[in-house]
Amino acid sequence: MHVSHSFSVSLLARTLKLATLAPMLLISPGALALSTIENGSSRTIDDTTTIDSWLVRDGSSLTANGATTDEIRAQAGSRLVLNDTKVTASGTSNGVELSNSAATITNKSRIVSDRTGLRLIATALGGSTARVSDSEIIGGQFGASLSAQSQLSLESGTTVTATNPDGIGVQSFGGKVLASESRIVGGLHGVSLFAAGNLPANNTLILDKTHVEGQSGSAIIVNGQTQTNVERVNIQVNNGSTLKGGNGTLLEVINGASANFNLDNSHLIGDVIVANGASADVLLDHSATLTGRLENVQNLAVNNDASWVMVGDGQVQNLTLNGGAVQFGNPGQYFKLSVDTLSGEGGTFHMHNDFTTGQVDTLTVTGNASGNHTIALDSRGTEPVGAGATPIVHIGSGDATFALKGGAVNLGAFSYDLIKQGNNDWVLDAASRVISPGTQSVLALFNAAPTVWYGELSTLRTRMGEVRMDHGKAGGWIRAYGNKYDVSESAGVAYKQTQQGLSFGADAPLPIGDGQWLMGVLAGYSKSDLDMSRGTTGEVDSYYLGAYTTWLDAQSGYYFDGVVKYNRFQNESDVQLSDGKKAKGDYNNNGVGASLEFGRHIKLADDYFVEPYAQLSGLIIDGANYDLDNGLSADGDRAHSLLGKVGATVGRNFKWAEGKTVQPYLRAAYVHEFANNSDVDVNNIGFKTDLSGSRGELGAGVALAVTDKVSMHMDLDYSNGDKIEQPWGVNVGARYSW
Q1: Is the pLDDT reported for residue 57 higher than 50?
Q2: What is the pTM for the complete model shown?
Q3: pLDDT at 236 over 70
Q4: Alpha carbon separation from 72 to 94, 175, 273 (Å, rounded)
Q5: At 552, which helix (H) or strand (E)?
Q6: CA-to-CA separations, 526 to 425, 482, 542, in angstroms, rounded
Q7: C or N terminus of the chain, fewer CB within 10 Å?
C-alpha cells in the first residue's frame, strides 16, 4: 500500500507537469510510426489502416471503425471516435491520451497499455471528457486516469482493469467519474480518488449497477496528500452497485482527506476505515444495507428502510435515523454501540439478547438523544434471568423515546414491555409482564380437549333422539358437525375454537328386554382450530372410537342412554413471536370418557311431547410434556372433566305423506362443570386453566323420515356462561335402516 501511495504522489506531480508540456509533445518514446491530424482536419480510418500511432491536435478529429492501432493522443480541443477499434500501446506509452479533448469509445473497442489504458488530462484551456460503452480498457499501472476538470463516463458493460499487483483500476485527481453497468478492477485498489487542496475539482464518483474491486487493497481509497483545506470527495453507490476490497475494506480515507459516502438501494459487505486526521460522512438510503465496521466515521445517517449491520462493537460520533435501522449483528452475536449524539425519527435498533447468560446488545448515547425510535428484540423460549436489571438503552441527556417494535417481547413464559427507568435508562418491565403467545398456545391446547370431546358427543346425543323416534330398527348413520367456542380470559387463557368433524356408526336392537335395548358402535374424526391472538394458533386432530346403548320403555316413555368413547388427540402449536419468527411444537395424548343420560319421553295432546332429562359426563385426558422449537418447555398434568346437565326437549310430531313423520323440537338445559382446574407448567412455572362453572344451553332441531328406511336430522345449539360461550353449533346427518 505504501508503494501505491508514493507512486500516486509522484504521478500527481507528473500529471501537472505534463498538462503544461502536452502541446509540445509529439510522440512517446518507442513509437514506431506517427500520423498527425491537425489544424481542424478530420480523418476516418478502418480495418485496412496500418498506422502505428496517432496524434490529433488543434481541434481536429479522428474516427476509427474496426481499426487496429498503436497509441492515440488527442490535444487542444480535438475529438476521437473509436468504434470496434483495438488500441495496443507499446513500451511506456499510454493507450489513449486526451489533453483538453474528448473521446467516444464504443462497440467492443479494446485499449491495452502496460502503463495507462485511458488518460484524461486538463490544461489551462480545460479538462478532457471520455464516454466509454460496451468496451474494455486495460492498463498495467492504471486502467484509467483523469485529472481535475475532466470527466470519465463508463456505460453499458464496460470493463476497466489495472493488471499490475499494485495497479489501480481508475485513478482520479479531482475529476468526475460516472460508471453505469460497468466493472472496475485494480490489482491493488479499485478506485483511487485524490483530494488535493491545490486542484480545482469535481471530486465525484457515481456508481450505478457497477462493480468496483480492489483485489488486494480497498475497493475505493480517498487520499488527501496530507494537505489542508482539501476538497470533499463525493461518492455515490447506487442501484445494486457492489464494492469488494481484498483487505475487506470498501472505503479507505487517509492523509487528511474528507469524503461523503452515500449508499442508495445497494447492499455492501465490508468496512469503512477513516484514518486519524481524515473524515467521512456515511449516508445509507432507500433500503440499502452496509454490513461491516465503521471506523472513525464522523456522521452516519440511515434513512428510508436502509440498515447498517454491525459486525462488532461500534462507535459513531453522530447517528441520525429517519426510518432506517441499525442491526447489532446476527442472532447469537452480542455487541455494544456507542454514539455521541442520536437524532432523527422512526429509527429501529435490531438487538439480540440472551438474558439467561447475561449477554445483551446495548446502545449508549453519551450526549444528547432525540426522536422517537423502536427497539426490536429477539424473542426466546427460555426464561430470562434479571430481565429488568440490565439497561438496553442509556442516554446522557435529551427527550428521545424508545419502544419495543411489535409490542412486548416474548421471553420464555411471559412477554415484557420496555419502560424508562429514571431519566436515562430503558429496561424491560418485569413487574407488569403478561403471559407470552407460546404460553397461550400451550394452555389453550391442554384446555381444549374437553370441548373437543363434548363437541363430538353432541352429535351422538341427537343421534339417540333420532333412534327413539323410530325405535326397534337396526341401521347405519353418518353425521357432519361444526362447533364454535369462545373461551374467556377467566378460564386461564383466552382463545377461540372452531371444530368440524364427521361421525358414523351402526346399531341394532338387542335380543333382550323385549327389544327395548339397542347397542351401537361409532367412529369419527374432528379437527379443531384454536385462535389466540396476533397470529398464534393451535390445532387438535381428534380420532375416536366408541360404543353406545339406549333403552326405551315404550309404555312409560322412560329412557336411558350410555356412551363410552376413546380419543387419540394430535396437538400442534404454531406461535407467532414478537420478532416476526414462528415457533412450533406438537404432542399426542389420549382421552377416555363416558356419558350417562336418563329421561322420559312424555306424549302430550295433539302429538306434542316433552322430554325432561338429566345427563352426567366424565372425561380423563392424559397429561403430556413437549417443547416448542424456540426452547419453551411445557408439562401438563392429567386433565379431568365432570359435566352435569339438566334440561328438557319440547317438540311435536307431524304426520305427512304415507305416514312419514316430521319432528321439530326445542331444547333448553342448565349445564355445570364440576372439575375446577388443570395444572400446566411452562418452563417450570405453574399455570392453571379452569372451565368450571355454569352456563345455559339452547337448541333447536328437526328430524325427518324421508322414506321407510331413510331419515335425516339437523340440530342447532347455542350456550353461554362466564368462562365459555358457544355462539353456534350445527350438525346434520342421515340414517339408513335395514
Answers
A1: yes
A2: 0.81
A3: yes
A4: 8, 21, 39
A5: strand 537-552
A6: 52, 9, 5
A7: C
| Same-domain pairing of 423 and 460 | no
Residue 293 CA, chain-centre distance (Å), reads 23
Q: Which of 435, 456, 474 is the last residue of a domain?
A: 435
Q: Is 344 left (phi over 0), alpha (psi -120 to 50) or beta?
A: left
Closest CA relative to residue 410, chosen from 577, 533, 584: 577
Backbone angles phi, psi at 644, to 5 degrees: -110, 145
Mean pLDDT for the chain overall: 89
Q: Are strands 475-487 and 86-88 parallel, antiparallel or unpaired?
A: unpaired
Question: What span, in angstroms and rounded, lies between the C-alpha atoms of 227 and 230?
Answer: 6
SS3 content of the chain, % helix, strand, coil (to 5): 10, 60, 30
What tens digit of pLDDT does each residue of 474-527 get? 889 999 999 999 999 999 899 999 999 999 999 888 877 666 888 999 999 999
The number of C-alpha atoms within 13 Å of 725 and in the hemisphere containing its C-beta is 10
103 neighbors 79 (Cβ within 8 angstroms): yes
Residue 363 within any structural domain of the chain: yes
**598 and 669 fall within a common domain:** yes
**CATH code of the domain containing 646:** 2.40.128.130
Q: Which three cell numbers stand for residue 59?
A: 481541434
Residue 333 is placed in which grid cell? 452475536
Locate cell 440511515: which residue? Answer: 302
Residue that is last in its domain, among 399, 415, 435: 435
Q: Is residue 285 a contact partner of residue 264, using CB atoms and an 8 Å limit? A: yes
Per the listing, cell 485529472 goes with 147
Long-range contacts of 20-27 (CB under 8 A, 24+ apart): 20/123, 22/75, 22/99, 22/100, 22/121, 22/123, 23/57, 23/75, 23/76, 23/99, 23/123, 25/73, 26/55, 27/53, 27/55
Q: Which residue has the cell 486526451?
A: 98
Beta-carbon neighbour count of residue 3 at 10 Å?
A: 10
Question: What is the Cα–Cα distance from 111 to 385, expressed in whole angstroms?
Answer: 66
Confirm if 650 and 612 have CB atoms less than 8 A apart: no
Q: Cα angle at 586 between 585 and 588, to 5 degrees?
A: 160
d(CA 116, CA 106): 18
What average pLDDT does this structure show over 396-421?
A: 93
**In what helix (H) or strand (E) does residue 594 lie, and over which residues does it extend?**
strand 582-600
CA distance linking residue 77 with residue 128, whole number of Å = 9
Sort strands 183-186 and 211-214 into parallel, antiparallel or unpaired: parallel
